[in-house]
Amino acid sequence: MEAYDIGSAFGDLGEVEFRTLATFNRGTIGVFWASSGISPWERHPDDEELLQVIEGSVDIEVLTAEGSEITTVSAGSVFVVPRGHWHRHRHTGVVKELYLTPGPSDTSFEEDPRVSPGDT
User: Fold this and answer.
1) Could you state, in order of their start, the residue ranges of all structural domains in the chain?
2) Tens digits of per-residue pLDDT, 26-72?
3) What are phi and psi of 93, to 5 degrees?
4) What's the pTM?
5) What contacts 35, CB < 8 A, 6 or more positions away?
6) What is the CATH code for 35-108?
7) Contact 82/42 with Cβ under 8 angstroms?
């Protein structure tokens, strides 16, 4: 058993470098930080994902049946990404974040990951 100092976990962490703190179920708990840009799409087919913003804020874009929904998550807040939904980060400044991803992830660099390249 071990306790993790989240603040010091960012110490020598490079931008958009992920640091795993521990395993959790079939996934991981970790931290990362970024200052700009848009992340690739990601989804977790079997689990929800918990995101906690430690410093700054970030816009989380989630694709739903109705379209794209963007939620701003600020320092001290948590956001639960619904199971099986494609989502990405839209960075507008420095954000430091803790994530809890309990299971496997899919990643896509497509404009709309719900449509495979052969479907267009």
Assistant:
1) 35-108
2) 999 999 999 999 999 999 999 999 999 999 999 999 999 999 999 99
3) 170, 180
4) 0.90
5) 15, 91, 93, 94, 95
6) 2.60.120.10
7) no
